[in-house]
Specification:
Shape: rod-shaped
Helix content: 55-70%
């Protein structure tokens, strides 16, 4: 989309430059006085070509910026796709987290890991966050949104 706008802009510049190249406004009133001399046509054309070159360079830079941003987004998504199963496996393989229900959501673009679900106690919640952080690495921030379901304290309340 951005490239299309730049192409249209450059095309418009070519039309304006070639139209104006044949006429000269020597008294600077906005109206052409007479046909331009060959030197005036050459200067006008050179100026137009330079401006079009600058516009094309700007378009190229814009395309480069868009491509770089897209590349980073893809890289972040790939990183997230790799981290999520590693974290889930690490959590599932830890015997201290048996009986917990933890959902892992990794956002590679924001470098965040969201832990949601339920655990039996605060110790399990903290352990899960530590495992997620260690598995993903220091570049990620863990948002621990785990809810404690109660475990032994919950069983005590039910008996009363």
């Amino acid at each position: 989309m951005q490239m299309m706008k730049w192409t249209q802009l450059i095309g418009l510049g070519v039309v304006v430059a070639t139209s104006a190249a044949g006429c000269a406004d020597r008294n600077k009133n906005g109206d052409p006085d007479s046909l331009a001399t060959p030197g005036e046509v050459a200067r006008s054309t050179d100026t137009a070509v330079k401006k079009m070159g600058n516009a094309a360079g700007g378009a190229g830079k814009s395309v480069e910026n868009v491509a770089t941003g897209a590349g980073k987004a893809i890289e972040g998504a790939a990183d997230a796709a790799a981290n999520t199963p590693k974290i889930k496996a690490a959590l599932g393989n830890n015997p201290s987290l048996m009986g917990s229900n933890i959902d892992v959501d990794t956002n590679g673009a924001a470098n965040t890991i969201n832990l949601k679900g339920t655990v039996k106690n605060a110790a399990q919640s903290k352990l899960a966050a530590n495992i997620a952080q260690k598995t993903a690495g220091a570049n990620y921030k863990v948002n621990n949104q785990l809810k404690v379901s109660g475990g032994a304290a919950s069983a005590m309340k039910k008996k009363m």
